[in-house]
Write a structure and sequence with these properties.
By secondary structure, this protein is mostly helical. The protein contains eight helices and no strands. It has one domain. Helix 1 packs across helix 2, helix 3 packs antiparallel against helix 4 and helix 3 packs across helix 7. It is elongated, with a radius of gyration of 24 Å.
Protein backbone atom coordinates (compact mmCIF):
# COMPACT_ATOMS: atom_id res chain seq x y z
CA UNK A 1 0.00 0.00 0.00
CA UNK A 2 2.91 2.34 0.69
CA UNK A 3 4.09 1.78 -2.84
CA UNK A 4 0.65 2.85 -4.17
CA UNK A 5 0.66 6.03 -2.05
CA UNK A 6 4.21 6.85 -3.11
CA UNK A 7 3.38 6.21 -6.75
CA UNK A 8 0.25 8.35 -6.49
CA UNK A 9 2.24 11.19 -4.86
CA UNK A 10 4.91 11.05 -7.55
CA UNK A 11 2.16 10.97 -10.19
CA UNK A 12 0.59 14.11 -8.77
CA UNK A 13 3.98 15.84 -8.63
CA UNK A 14 4.55 14.85 -12.25
CA UNK A 15 1.11 16.21 -13.24
CA UNK A 16 1.68 19.44 -11.35
CA UNK A 17 5.07 19.88 -12.93
CA UNK A 18 3.61 19.23 -16.40
CA UNK A 19 0.72 21.65 -15.90
CA UNK A 20 3.03 24.26 -14.37
CA UNK A 21 5.20 24.11 -17.50
CA UNK A 22 2.11 24.29 -19.70
CA UNK A 23 0.79 27.24 -17.69
CA UNK A 24 4.13 29.01 -18.09
CA UNK A 25 3.99 28.41 -21.86
CA UNK A 26 0.42 29.76 -22.00
CA UNK A 27 1.39 32.77 -19.91
CA UNK A 28 4.35 33.48 -22.19
CA UNK A 29 2.05 33.24 -25.23
CA UNK A 30 -0.42 35.63 -23.62
CA UNK A 31 2.35 38.11 -22.82
CA UNK A 32 3.70 37.83 -26.37
CA UNK A 33 0.21 38.37 -27.79
CA UNK A 34 -0.29 41.36 -25.50
CA UNK A 35 3.00 42.86 -26.70
CA UNK A 36 2.00 42.29 -30.35
CA UNK A 37 -1.39 43.90 -29.70
CA UNK A 38 0.29 46.89 -28.02
CA UNK A 39 2.68 47.31 -30.94
CA UNK A 40 -0.16 46.95 -33.45
CA UNK A 41 -2.22 49.60 -31.63
CA UNK A 42 0.74 51.98 -31.44
CA UNK A 43 1.55 51.44 -35.11
CA UNK A 44 -2.13 51.95 -36.02
CA UNK A 45 -2.10 55.25 -34.15
CA UNK A 46 1.23 56.42 -35.57
CA UNK A 47 0.47 55.56 -39.18
CA UNK A 48 -3.29 56.14 -39.07
CA UNK A 49 -3.74 52.84 -40.88
CA UNK A 50 -6.46 50.34 -40.00
CA UNK A 51 -5.34 47.63 -42.42
CA UNK A 52 -4.65 44.66 -40.11
CA UNK A 53 -2.44 42.96 -42.73
CA UNK A 54 -0.13 45.98 -42.92
CA UNK A 55 -0.01 46.27 -39.13
CA UNK A 56 0.59 42.54 -38.63
CA UNK A 57 3.34 42.61 -41.23
CA UNK A 58 5.10 45.54 -39.53
CA UNK A 59 4.82 43.78 -36.16
CA UNK A 60 6.26 40.60 -37.73
CA UNK A 61 9.17 42.65 -39.09
CA UNK A 62 9.71 43.90 -35.52
CA UNK A 63 9.35 47.52 -36.60
CA UNK A 64 9.21 49.50 -33.40
CA UNK A 65 6.49 52.08 -32.78
CA UNK A 66 9.23 54.65 -32.16
CA UNK A 67 10.65 53.98 -35.63
CA UNK A 68 7.21 54.40 -37.16
CA UNK A 69 6.65 57.70 -35.33
CA UNK A 70 9.94 59.01 -36.70
CA UNK A 71 9.08 57.51 -40.09
CA UNK A 72 5.75 59.33 -40.12
CA UNK A 73 7.14 62.72 -39.01
CA UNK A 74 10.18 63.02 -41.30
CA UNK A 75 8.10 63.65 -44.46
CA UNK A 76 6.11 66.35 -42.68
CA UNK A 77 9.26 68.15 -41.56
CA UNK A 78 10.87 67.82 -45.00
CA UNK A 79 7.80 69.25 -46.76
CA UNK A 80 7.60 72.13 -44.30
CA UNK A 81 11.29 73.00 -44.82
CA UNK A 82 11.12 72.54 -48.63
CA UNK A 83 10.74 76.25 -49.33
CA UNK A 84 13.47 77.20 -46.85
CA UNK A 85 11.34 78.14 -43.86
CA UNK A 86 8.59 76.72 -41.73
CA UNK A 87 5.41 78.75 -41.59
CA UNK A 88 3.64 78.99 -38.19
CA UNK A 89 0.64 77.03 -39.52
CA UNK A 90 2.96 74.29 -40.79
CA UNK A 91 4.69 74.12 -37.40
CA UNK A 92 1.33 73.92 -35.62
CA UNK A 93 0.11 71.18 -37.98
CA UNK A 94 3.29 69.13 -37.45
CA UNK A 95 3.09 69.46 -33.67
CA UNK A 96 -0.56 68.45 -33.78
CA UNK A 97 0.31 65.42 -35.93
CA UNK A 98 3.01 64.43 -33.43
CA UNK A 99 0.61 64.63 -30.49
CA UNK A 100 -1.94 62.58 -32.44
CA UNK A 101 0.73 59.91 -32.88
CA UNK A 102 1.32 59.74 -29.15
CA UNK A 103 4.39 61.95 -28.88
CA UNK A 104 4.39 63.35 -25.34
CA UNK A 105 5.36 66.98 -24.83
CA UNK A 106 8.48 66.16 -22.79
CA UNK A 107 9.46 62.99 -24.63
CA UNK A 108 12.78 62.59 -26.46
CA UNK A 109 10.83 62.45 -29.74
CA UNK A 110 9.20 65.82 -28.94
CA UNK A 111 12.59 67.37 -28.22
CA UNK A 112 14.03 65.96 -31.44
CA UNK A 113 11.03 67.26 -33.38
CA UNK A 114 11.45 70.70 -31.79
CA UNK A 115 15.05 70.72 -32.99
CA UNK A 116 13.93 69.74 -36.51
CA UNK A 117 11.41 72.58 -36.48
CA UNK A 118 13.88 75.16 -35.18
CA UNK A 119 16.73 74.25 -37.50
CA UNK A 120 16.50 72.45 -40.82
CA UNK A 121 17.62 68.83 -40.43
CA UNK A 122 20.72 67.61 -42.21
CA UNK A 123 19.92 66.19 -45.68
CA UNK A 124 21.06 62.83 -44.30
CA UNK A 125 17.70 62.57 -42.48
CA UNK A 126 15.77 62.43 -45.75
CA UNK A 127 18.34 60.05 -47.26
CA UNK A 128 17.95 57.76 -44.25
CA UNK A 129 14.16 57.91 -44.55
CA UNK A 130 14.39 57.05 -48.25
CA UNK A 131 16.75 54.14 -47.51
CA UNK A 132 14.33 52.87 -44.85
CA UNK A 133 11.47 52.92 -47.35
CA UNK A 134 13.63 51.15 -49.92
CA UNK A 135 14.41 48.37 -47.43
CA UNK A 136 10.81 48.11 -46.27
CA UNK A 137 9.14 47.99 -49.70
CA UNK A 138 10.11 44.44 -50.70
CA UNK A 139 8.59 43.06 -47.52
CA UNK A 140 5.21 44.76 -48.11
CA UNK A 141 2.42 43.54 -50.30
CA UNK A 142 1.26 45.86 -53.09
CA UNK A 143 -1.86 46.74 -51.10
CA UNK A 144 0.13 47.40 -47.91
CA UNK A 145 2.62 49.62 -49.74
CA UNK A 146 -0.22 51.60 -51.33
CA UNK A 147 -1.98 52.01 -47.98
CA UNK A 148 1.21 53.22 -46.32
CA UNK A 149 1.92 55.60 -49.21
CA UNK A 150 -1.61 56.99 -49.04
CA UNK A 151 -1.31 57.60 -45.29
CA UNK A 152 2.14 59.22 -45.38
CA UNK A 153 1.45 61.31 -48.48
CA UNK A 154 -1.92 62.50 -47.18
CA UNK A 155 -0.32 63.92 -44.04
CA UNK A 156 2.60 65.41 -46.00
CA UNK A 157 0.22 67.09 -48.44
CA UNK A 158 -1.79 68.49 -45.52
CA UNK A 159 1.38 70.12 -44.17
CA UNK A 160 2.13 71.60 -47.59
CA UNK A 161 -1.38 73.05 -47.72
CA UNK A 162 -1.28 74.30 -44.11
CA UNK A 163 0.45 77.59 -44.89
CA UNK A 164 -2.38 78.44 -47.25
CA UNK A 165 -1.84 81.01 -49.92
CA UNK A 166 -4.06 83.81 -51.08
CA UNK A 167 -7.67 82.57 -51.12
CA UNK A 168 -6.34 79.03 -51.48
CA UNK A 169 -4.44 79.86 -54.67
CA UNK A 170 -0.84 78.70 -54.69
CA UNK A 171 -1.25 76.94 -51.39
CA UNK A 172 1.53 74.49 -52.28
CA UNK A 173 4.78 76.12 -53.34
CA UNK A 174 6.87 74.74 -56.19
CA UNK A 175 9.51 73.59 -53.69
CA UNK A 176 6.89 71.79 -51.59
CA UNK A 177 5.44 70.18 -54.72
CA UNK A 178 8.91 68.97 -55.68
CA UNK A 179 9.41 67.50 -52.19
CA UNK A 180 6.00 65.81 -52.32
CA UNK A 181 6.93 64.26 -55.68
CA UNK A 182 10.23 63.03 -54.23
CA UNK A 183 8.51 61.49 -51.21
CA UNK A 184 5.88 59.85 -53.40
CA UNK A 185 8.52 58.46 -55.72
CA UNK A 186 10.14 56.70 -52.75
CA UNK A 187 7.11 54.41 -52.51
CA UNK A 188 7.29 53.32 -56.17
Amino acid sequence: MNDAVGLRNHGRALEESFFERENQKLLAKLREQGERDRKRATLREALRIDDEDVLDHLVALDVSPETIVAFSLVPLVEVAWADGEIQPKERDAILKAAVERGVGHDSPTAHLLSNWLAMRPDPQLLETWMAYIEELKPSLSEASRKEMKKSVMGRARAIAEAAGGFLGVGSISAAEKKMLDELEWAFE
